[in-house]
Inverse folding.
């Protein structure tokens, strides 16, 4: 660096707010006059919100039934016992009877819930091939390695859909029957099995491979279904818009749950007389009991639920808001008391000084 | 990797620079006398050159110089080896050297060759035939001692340090000199040299013959800050913590696999290579190790470097540290030490050129009871008014306050009233000299007898040697700068000391040349504290002129001038209270007969062999009595601008300032008073000047006893330490003495005190003192002292100095040698600050920070240092926090995902979190944040204290971060979990899927950490806003982009979260959950911030409170407290420590023929 022969001030740093660290700035202060009202306001707002959330969550009706069939607790225990230790379990049916004393306000949604089922287990979660599911023919023939051991069948054919998630597709089925009058006949309640998957999943993410000669079956030729499946994937439904990879039950299942206890939408009840809800009367749910969960201590539940403005029943947020709101106010009071006491003390100290 | 390579490149460049410097020195050319041996050496490199080059001077490189070579040194040449002086161009083989690099003294020192060799002069034949043998001690670091013998022609000659020119000196005023190389920097086998004509035998052959300066150089070391150390420790902790967590999770996995996973194999078979849950859990351990490693903040190191770089740039850019007169901005030469600047506890300052400007000015005098010079108060105002920009910058903080404008205008008036005295009547006046009192000139012009006599005495009574290369351009070479100042003053007032021989002094008095016959010089020494000359005036009167310390001189005065003495003493009190160095001047007219008589006694005493010193001083006392008082002089050792203010500010910031100087004690103490390191309110000052271990120990003990009696009675931890000698480094606790004390310690005593057990005693005593002055220090001792404090106090030390004091000798040549010696001082301290003042860039080149005024130090420490420290601490706290909050969520999730090493977040989020989403806000925080602005930082130096105790980031703070991070991660996991548990959207479709959960947690996390940084930020610039909120906004953009249809369809296996953002974020409960997480994370923080100062008030909080109070209420104008010393202290006398040139001037030898040719002016008779 040459320092000589430079004009006076040549090395003078620029006089900008940035270089001189004088950028105009807002310097907020956490003073008592801000902090205390903040706490009280936040507390009140939270309590208000919490109450709203709590009551709207409480307003939602839920009807749930555990049909796992442990120790003869339900009609399904027969099926459960029959399926014990056999793989694949034999086809078996059971039923759940319930009655509604009053209208179950609609729209009503039918869910199944599994507990102790670790869909979020890492190796389980990655055991899928999204390329295959998005209809890429090459991926259909060559499933990703993550799918192993459900990548290739025993015969060496590529499995479609591959992977542990697809293989463990929930295959119990339910039908709902309504008895309007006591002793009357059971009428089947129409269950809308479409529109249960996310719009994006159904329309964008999951796609069937391109049809071969207008046939989906031909498109899947040369692939094997997952070992646990009884039917090939193109045969999941008769509806061409609901079969193959875009079968909605399948799509719903493929969206793996975050927690070991999870619900998945099975059907919506919104047709005919049932669009406003389930009227009073006796009901029967016929259950095709296929899915083994007792081996790993899981449970299967069937749930009818209504929906409010904020979704399904979940009291957690309401309670949490109430608790946090109360905490805010409590802390506000504590701080106020401390502030007043210590402020006086400090003032005295300063006076002494 | 990036971190390592950046560091490697940086270090590489540093190393290259150092090598370059070394090479420059090593390749510098030197003139070597080629004798038989040398030619052999010469030929081996350049084949074909004939042996006829014998007896010639050949240019060679310094690096090729060997012990035993005879070299020729020329004027202004730097000596790079220790050399035994053989002969020189000057009379009596005198050689003048400047040792500024060694001890910082700019005055010349004289070395004299022994007579046998001096006769050889520049006769090459004789010189090359010289075949003496030198026996000397092994190289050591004492610059003031050398013992050896020269055996030449069968006779032994004693060598002492007067014969030796040390490496690092510069030859001055000497056309040439020949020397024998005694020590070089490198060890070469002496046996190698064939037929040694000159043998140098070093007593202790275990040592390489390093030069004394190299021994004094100290080692340079790679500097790392405390924070760096702490960071490494913490990273280690985190690593262990990580291992612990992974272990817990692996165990959890083992249990889970046994209880559940085993039975779940229908749906999820184990991998073929997993034979049991044990194997699986081992694998999981490593999986979690990978997942959780984001907790070990690798990017931390890079970010820290960036922040330091940014803060270094601020230092470079600071206009308030730009010195306009020298056109030098401040420079942060090291970019790794910034935050350490905010933690400095000890400042070690050089004196000359650092505290002082190294300019002595004759500022006031009292002649025959009349005061000349301007009064102090006026001077203060004048300074304020005329002070150039640099000075005003130093008084920053008062700027812009009402009142200062008024002061300036007042000052301007005063300035017009007392402008510089015009010396144009005097052709020989030194143009650099300035004086502000016209009355003195008027008195001179009027021909006031006393004034004339006063100046005559000043122009006669000294040992200055003049040099007049161009006629009319006189340059004085004085043993002490004070003397130079006095003679210069006399010169400007019209009493020009023009030339001297050993018997005459020529003075041009008001244009008229007068020759005084020099009869005797009664030289100065430390006991006498005075010097006299006896001259015969042209009128044939014998006069004795004496100047000396007032305390001594007033006892020698004639009773008749008692009243005058009292008046003068009053003036002297005034002078001393202004921190000026004072001398009394007196004369005595001698009876011719009396003088003859005395002269005989004098020569008798002089020739006596026994007890000569004593006899001489008795003789001196005989004649130095009944003196007539003439007056007193006051010399100002000019301090740099704003030094006292800076030192006051620094001591308010509880920074201890030690002055380490090569200067003599009196000067150092005087300066210490002048710049407020010592003040008169101090309860006492201890002087340690013992010559052996026992006395030094006694002195230190008694000092400590006085300061804190109980500290000796208590069971002394240091004694315990010394008896047990544990391995662990020992930290000496801070002790509070009973009052304000000062300690002055001498270089000689220090040499003892630094040995063995005494060093702790010294440290304990010294650290209790308010100020410590160490004088007559060698560079190595400086480094040792710094090292001592650093080692046992575990605090940050800063060394400030300017290094060499002369620009001309350095100009053009970089001096790695000198650099090394200075580097030792700097390297020892945590931070080295170079003053790139009058003396060029050399100090700067080795320092970590460099600027041109001492007063910028307060800005460097209190503003830049504090900010850097605060920013770094905030950065670290936040950085650790955000990584904990981020990573630990995985830990909680493990309990709900079968310990399967499932990550909570999308892989893209993990990649971007540190790199993109959170990097800018935290950088913004650590580059722009200021808790209080610079004005307040300087106004309330107390704000600096937390840094010294490292309060803002330490292990405790780290644990707080950890706890906070754990809490946040709990909130961040369980709130979203509760929210999505069995939840469905308003259209009945479930939302509790893994991908939605990830998105919610990510979003909450980012909102929480953004809020956290918003809380930390106290200074919201536009850039902070953009960085903070922009990053959050950017996150959402990225989120929607990564989860968009197009991208996900293009790479379905890479971007798997198609549509999740849309489906999740339009659900109101997600936002309710995000808000809940944010509030839950913020509440304790706000509460803590609010309650902490109330429950545990720290001083800093009060100060900040006051600042905020002041900010909202306009300030009363600050009343400037004048720095005034109470006039009780009067030890200041202006003399060099050493004996002057007197003996040389009047030595028995007659004048050599070339003496007048060189140094004196042809006489006009």
């Amino acid at each position: 660096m040459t320092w000589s022969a430079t004009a006076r001030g040549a090395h003078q740093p620029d006089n900008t707010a940035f270089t001189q660290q004088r950028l105009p700035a807002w310097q907020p202060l956490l003073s008592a006059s801000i902090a205390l009202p903040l706490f009280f306001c936040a507390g009140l707002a939270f309590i208000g919100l919490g109450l709203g959330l709590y009551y709207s969550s409480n307003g939602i009706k839920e009807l749930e039934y555990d049909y796992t069939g442990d120790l003869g607790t339900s009609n399904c225990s027969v099926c459960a016992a029959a399926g014990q230790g056999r793989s694949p379990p034999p086809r078996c049916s059971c039923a759940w009877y319930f009655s509604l004393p009053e209208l179950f306000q609609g729209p009503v949604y039918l869910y199944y819930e599994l507990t102790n089922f670790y869909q979020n287990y890492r190796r389980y979660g990655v055991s899928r091939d999204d390329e295959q599911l998005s209809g890429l023919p090459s991926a259909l023939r060559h499933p990703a390695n993550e799918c192993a051991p459900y990548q290739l069948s025993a015969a060496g054919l590529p499995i479609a859909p591959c992977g542990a998630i697809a293989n463990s597709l929930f295959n119990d089925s339910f039908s709902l029957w309504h008895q309007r009058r006591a002793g009357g006949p059971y009428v089947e309640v129409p269950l809308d099995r479409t529109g249960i998957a996310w719009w994006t999943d159904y329309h964008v993410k999951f796609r069937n491979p391109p049809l071969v000669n207008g046939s989906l079956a031909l498109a899947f030729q040369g692939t094997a279904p997952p070992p646990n499946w009884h039917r090939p994937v193109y045969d999941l439904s008769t509806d061409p818009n609901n079969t193959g990879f875009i079968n909605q039950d399948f799509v719903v299942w493929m969206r793996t749950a975050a927690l070991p206890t999870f619900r998945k939408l099975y059907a919506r009840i919104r047709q005919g007389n049932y669009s406003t809800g389930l009227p009073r009367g006796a009901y029967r749910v016929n259950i095709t009991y296929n899915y083994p969960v007792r081996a790993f201590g899981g449970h299967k539940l069937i749930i009818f639920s209504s929906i409010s403005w904020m979704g399904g029943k979940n009291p957690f947020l309401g309670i949490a808001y109430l608790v946090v709101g109360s905490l805010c106010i409590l802390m506000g009071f504590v701080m106020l008391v401390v502030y007043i006491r210590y402020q006086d003390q400090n003032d005295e100290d300063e006076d002494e000084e | 990797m990036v971190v390592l390579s950046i560091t490697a490149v940086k270090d590489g460049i540093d190393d290259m620079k150092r090598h370059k410097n070394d090479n420059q020195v090593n390749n510098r050319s030197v003139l070597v006398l080629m004798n038989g041996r040398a030619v052999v050496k010469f030929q081996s490199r350049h084949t074909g050159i004939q042996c006829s080059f014998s007896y010639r001077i050949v240019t060679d490189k310094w690096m090729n110089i060997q012990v035993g070579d005879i070299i020729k040194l020329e004027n202004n040449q730097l000596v790079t080896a220790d050399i035994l002086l053989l002969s020189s161009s000057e009379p009596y083989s005198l050689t003048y050297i400047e040792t500024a690099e060694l001890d910082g003294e700019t005055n010349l020192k004289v070395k004299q060759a022994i007579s046998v060799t001096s006769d050889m002069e520049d006769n090459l034949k004789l010189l090359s035939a010289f075949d003496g043998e030198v026996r000397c001690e092994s190289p050591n670091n004492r610059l003031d001692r050398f013992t050896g013998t020269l055996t030449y022609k069968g006779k032994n000659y004693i060598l002492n340090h007067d014969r030796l020119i040390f490496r690092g000196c510069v030859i001055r005023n000497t056309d040439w000199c020949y020397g024998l190389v005694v020590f070089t920097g490198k060890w070469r086998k002496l046996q190698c040299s064939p037929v040694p004509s000159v043998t140098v035998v070093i007593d202790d052959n275990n040592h390489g013959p390093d030069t004394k300066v190299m021994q004094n150089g100290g080692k340079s070391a790679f500097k790392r800050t405390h924070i760096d150390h702490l960071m490494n420790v913490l990273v280690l902790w985190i690593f262990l913590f990580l291992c612990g967590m992974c272990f817990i999770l692996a165990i959890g996995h083992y249990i889970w696999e046994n209880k559940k996973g085993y039975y779940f194999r229908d749906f999820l078979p184990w991998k073929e290579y997993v034979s049991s849950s044990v194997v699986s859990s081992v694998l999981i351990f490593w999986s979690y190790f990978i997942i959780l490693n984001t907790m070990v903040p690798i990017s931390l190191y890079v970010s820290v470097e960036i922040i330091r770089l940014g803060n270094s740039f601020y230092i470079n850019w600071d206009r308030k540290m730009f010195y306009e007169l020298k056109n030098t901005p401040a420079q942060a030469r090291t970019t790794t030490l910034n935050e350490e600047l905010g933690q400095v506890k000890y400042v070690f300052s050089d004196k000359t050129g650092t505290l002082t400007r190294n300019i002595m000015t004759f500022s006031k005098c009292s002649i025959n009871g009349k005061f000349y010079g301007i009064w102090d108060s006026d001077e203060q105002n004048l300074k304020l008014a005329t002070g150039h920009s640099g000075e005003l910058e130093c008084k920053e903080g008062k700027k812009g306050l009402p009142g200062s404008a008024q002061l300036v205008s007042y000052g301007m008036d005063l300035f017009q009233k007392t402008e510089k005295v015009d010396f144009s009547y005097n052709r020989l006046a030194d143009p650099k000299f300035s004086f502000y009192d016209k009355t003195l000139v008027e008195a001179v012009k009027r021909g006031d007898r006393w004034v004339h006599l006063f100046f005559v005495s000043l122009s006669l009574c000294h040992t200055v040697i003049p040099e007049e290369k161009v006629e009319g351009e006189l340059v004085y070479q004085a043993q002490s700068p004070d003397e130079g100042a006095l003679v210069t003053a006399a010169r400007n007032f019209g009493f020009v000391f023009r030339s001297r021989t050993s018997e005459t002094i020529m003075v041009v008095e008001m244009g008229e040349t007068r020759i005084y016959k020099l009869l005797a010089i009664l030289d100065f020494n430390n006991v006498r504290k005075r010097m006299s000359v006896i001259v015969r005036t042209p009128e044939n009167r014998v006069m004795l002129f004496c100047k000396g310390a007032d305390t001594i001189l007033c006892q020698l005065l004639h009773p008749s001038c008692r009243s005058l003495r009292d008046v003068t003493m009053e003036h002297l009190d005034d002078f001393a209270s202004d921190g000026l160095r004072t001398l009394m001047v007196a004369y005595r007219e001698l009876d011719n007969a009396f003088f003859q008589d005395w002269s005989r006694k004098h020569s008798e005493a002089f020739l006596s062999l026994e007890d000569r010193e004593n006899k001489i001083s008795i003789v001196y006392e005989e004649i130095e009595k009944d003196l007539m008082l003439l007056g007193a002089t006051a010399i100002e050792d000019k301090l740099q601008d704003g030094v006292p203010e800076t030192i006051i500010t620094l001591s308010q910031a509880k920074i201890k300032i030690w002055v380490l100087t090569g200067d003599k004690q009196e000067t150092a103490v005087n300066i210490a008073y002048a710049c407020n390191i010592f003040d008169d309110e101090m309860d006492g000052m201890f002087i340690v000047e013992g010559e052996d271990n026992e006395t030094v120990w006694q002195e230190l003990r008694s000092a400590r006893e006085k300061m804190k009696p109980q500290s000796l009675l208590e069971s002394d931890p240091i004694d315990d330490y010394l008896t047990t000698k544990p391995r662990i480094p020992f930290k000496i606790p801070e002790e509070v003495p009973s009052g304000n004390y000062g300690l002055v310690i001498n270089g000689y005593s220090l040499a003892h005190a630094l040995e063995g057990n005494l060093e702790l005693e010294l440290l304990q005593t010294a650290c209790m003192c308010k100020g410590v002055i160490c004088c007559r220090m060698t560079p190595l001792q400086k480094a040792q002292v710094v090292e001592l404090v650093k080692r046992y106090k575990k605090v940050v030390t800063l060394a400030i100095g300017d290094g060499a004091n002369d620009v001309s000798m350095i100009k053009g040549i970089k001096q790695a040698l000198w650099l090394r010696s200075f580097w030792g001082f700097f390297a020892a301290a945590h931070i080295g600050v170079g003053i790139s003042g009058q003396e060029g860039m050399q100090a700067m080149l080795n320092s970590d920070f460099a600027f041109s005024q001492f007063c910028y130090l307060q800005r460097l420490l209190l503003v830049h240092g504090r900010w850097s420290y605060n920013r770094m601490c905030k950065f670290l706290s936040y950085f650790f926090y955000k990584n904990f909050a981020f990573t630990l969520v995985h830990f909680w999730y493990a309990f709900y995902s079968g310990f399967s090493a499932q990550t909570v977040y999308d892989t893209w989020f993990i990649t971007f979190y540190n790199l993109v989403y959170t990097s800018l806000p935290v950088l913004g925080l650590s580059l722009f944040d200021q808790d209080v602005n610079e004005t307040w930082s300087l106004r309330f130096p107390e704000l600096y204290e937390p840094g010294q105790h490292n309060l803002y980031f330490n292990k405790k703070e780290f644990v707080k971060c950890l706890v906070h991070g754990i809490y946040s991660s709990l909130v961040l996991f369980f709130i979203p979990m509760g929210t999505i548990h069995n939840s469905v959207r308003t259209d009945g479709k479930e939302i509790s899927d893994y991908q939605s959960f990830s998105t919610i947690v990510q979003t909450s996390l980012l909102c929480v950490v953004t809020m956290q940084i918003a809380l930390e930020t106290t200074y919201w610039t536009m850039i902070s806003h953009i960085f903070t909120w922009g990053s959050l906004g950017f996150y959402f953009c990225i989120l929607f982009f990564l989860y968009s249809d197009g991208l996900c369809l293009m790479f379905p296996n890479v971007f798997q979260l198609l549509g999740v953002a849309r489906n999740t974020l339009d659900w109101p409960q997600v936002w309710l959950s995000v808000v809940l997480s944010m509030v839950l994370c913020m509440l304790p923080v706000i509460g803590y911030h609010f309650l902490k100062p109330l429950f545990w008030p720290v001083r800093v909080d009060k100060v900040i409170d006051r600042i905020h109070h002041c900010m909202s209420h306009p300030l009363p104008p600050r009343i400037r407290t004048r720095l005034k010393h109470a006039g009780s202290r009067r030890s200041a006398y202006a003399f060099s420590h050493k004996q002057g040139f007197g003996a040389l001037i009047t030595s028995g030898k007659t004048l050599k023929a070339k003496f007048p040719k060189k140094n004196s002016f042809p006489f006009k008779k």
